[in-house]
What does this fold into?
Amino acid sequence: MPTVPHFLAPYAAQLDPAGVYTVRQIAALIGAQPQSVYNLSSHGFLPGARVRVLPRGGREKVWTGKKLARLAARPIQVTYHHDRYSPATLYRVGCRCPNCRAAHTKESQERKRALAEAAFPAEKRQLVLDLVEAQTPVAEAASEAGVPLAAVYGRALWDAVFAEALDEAGWSLCVLGSDDPMCSSAPAYRGNQSKRDPCRGTGCREWRRESSRQTRAAAQS
Ligand SMILES: [Zn+2]
Ligand SMILES: [Zn+2]
It folds into this structure.
């Protein structure tokens, strides 16, 4: 049977030998979804857990940091039974076939989104949208909601619904007003040196996007 380094091996230095680890904590350590760690544990890749009785009832598995460090140092022997294990589990224990890779990519993405959700939850998203709708520039709205500006634009990159809502709210940001005939035009986007700020409202940004698209198309033809 082939052996591969234990999936905890790369994180061995981060383990606190005096610590006690729950499934969630192990998941956070290795960048996995808790469900994956449950699966790895139920398939026997994390032996030596203790069962802890929770103060409010119920029980959970925990591992001492010392135990995890010992597991990390021990290579795993495994044959890749795709009918027995989930692809995400097999990826953790070393399988790099396309199916297991895809499952791992999906898991990483889900985890990133779960973290993004925690960092910029729905009620803060609504607050940002409401503020922008009320003509607060996006950067100011983000700081008022207590989220980094990068989280706002980062979310808009993959959450199409939010991106659209932000664009929609951003129409109110036109320095001229979205009802002004000059909204969504070159002079509005560029501003007027002394008199008027360059506009970054949705209409004017769309003008800019369209005009650079046309410039690119013209250059290619
Ligand atoms: Zn595989
Ligand atoms: Zn504008």
About this structure: The longest strand covers residues 59-64.
